[in-house]
Amino acid sequence: MAQSSIKPHKGKLGILLPGLGAVATTFLAGVEAIRQGVSEPIGSLTQMGTVRLGKRTDNQTPLIKEFVPIAPLEDLVFGGWDIFEENCYESAKKAGVLEAQLIEKVRPMLEAVKPMKAVFSNRYVKNLHGTHVKEGANWFELAEQLKEDIRSFKEKNDLDRVVVVWCGSTEIFIEPSDVHQTIKSFEEGLRGNDERISPSMVYAYAAITSGVPFANGAPNLTVDLPAMVELAREHSVPICGKDFKTGQTFMKTVLAPGFKARLLGVAGWFSTNILGNKDGEVLDDPESFKTKEASKLSVLDHILQPKVYPTLYGDMHHKVRINYYPPRGDNKEGWDNIDIFGWLGYPMQIKIDFLCRDSILAAPIVLDLALFSDLAMRAGKRGIQEWLSFYFKAPQTADKLYPEHDLFIQLMKLKNTLRDMQGEELITHLGQEYYD
Ligand SMILES: NC(=O)c1ccc[n+]([C@@H]2O[C@H](COP(=O)([O-])OP(=O)(O)OC[C@H]3O[C@@H](n4cnc5c(N)ncnc54)[C@H](O)[C@@H]3O)[C@@H](O)[C@H]2O)c1
């Protein structure tokens, strides 16, 4: 009989979101619509996904949420922080993602989520000017205030557990440096108001030292730093990031593994986007765009391995552009032109025009990351959760380990981790037993 290593869920789970903008409010409205039975959890692996157990002939494919003890949607309680004071009903209306009719159906729940004051500085997000912001002598004091927010949120709502998912804006590009290396240097940096520490890092520090898992939906470094990894291990907390994999990069991690599998060359991949939401406005600042660009560019090199396949990918031109174009709102359009070549070097082209909805793609990822982070915590996992790479553009890995970007390898890894947690046999796809 298989042995589970996961503590059961009991009581309520709090989900705290720094950043209550388009993604966060679309997530909240969606969960409430699902609870009310007016919608289905489309796009969520924890809600609709299955996992095969045993042989292909065993016909055992339970829902993931029945195979592992995932917290039920009824047990979730929500809160968050933002630099604007408006509640989530007002914020959802402003975000312009959802129809007014749906927003009205879930209005009481959205209205009840009122942002706590944020830790914010204009230095890190240039294009936003909010005033609902905490005051403190230094980062350390501000982290203490966030810890108090977490404590009182837990107490007021009588919660058993809490997780944090960063849904805040993309911050300016910061390189890891000495202040980020150890817990000691980082804490000195917090006390000394070091400029290389950004607000998202202060939230992460507060969460981890409160024993709360942290998932990072933006491309900021945040928890992808040696000090944070050490801290997470010390406090036995799972962490993961970075940058939700939703539109164009999601398509890249589906297509590029296919080209490599068939040994088709890629001469160039040009990606451009137009979007008009607040995220687009933030990314209009070159310093925030640089953070996003680094996250988007890393994918192809890791999948196609130009050093291993120099003839096919050694001279590939990869360009990513994002243009802020207000008329489109949250309905992004992403174009890809891919120049590939095949047998005898003959060139071919592939064009993709993805008319996507950014927050609609991101919302189920927020749900899954919150629920899987809580599951990881109850399974006694700590530090970087590489099995959650499936959800990220730039998955966080151990030092010196390259990230796995291929969506299907990521999914296999995720499901095998679940099997492993429940003491089930891993699936290798060898399949020799059917022929012996
Ligand atoms: N939608 C997607 O498909 C997608 C994909 C990958 C990553 N992301 C990232 O997710 C994040 C959220 O995206 P969005 O479309 O909801 O953006 P948004 O601009 O609508 O929402 C972000 C919110 O964060 C708030 N904020 C900024 N700094 C904060 C701070 N320090 N503390 C608390 N709140 C803060 C802003 O006021 C805003 O309300 C962005 O970083 C974006 O790059 C989104």
Description of the molecule:
This protein has helices at 22-35, 45-48, 64-67, 88-95, 100-105, 107-112, 139-156, 183-191, 199-209, 226-234, 248-261, 278-283, 286-304, 310-313, 358-378, 407-421; strands at 12-18, 76-82, 116-117, 159-166, 214-216, 238-240, 265-275, 317-324, 333-341, 347-355, 383-384. The protein is built from 16 helices and eleven strands. It folds into two domains: 12-244 and 360-421, Rossmann fold (3-Layer(aba) Sandwich), CATH 3.40.50.720; 248-355, Dihydrodipicolinate Reductase, domain 2 (2-Layer Sandwich). Strand 9 and strand 10 (347-355) form a beta hairpin. The mean pLDDT is 94. Helix 1 packs across helix 15 (358-378), helix 7 (139-156) crosses helix 9 and helix 8 (183-191) crosses helix 10 (226-234). It has a seven-stranded parallel beta sheet with strand order 3-2-1-4-5-6-11, with helices on both faces. A four-stranded mixed beta sheet has the order 8-7-9-10. 48% of the residues are buried. The longest helix has 21 residues, at 358-378. With 436 residues, the protein is of the alpha/beta class. Nicotinamide-adenine-dinucleotide binds next to helix 1, strand 2, helix 12 and helix 15.
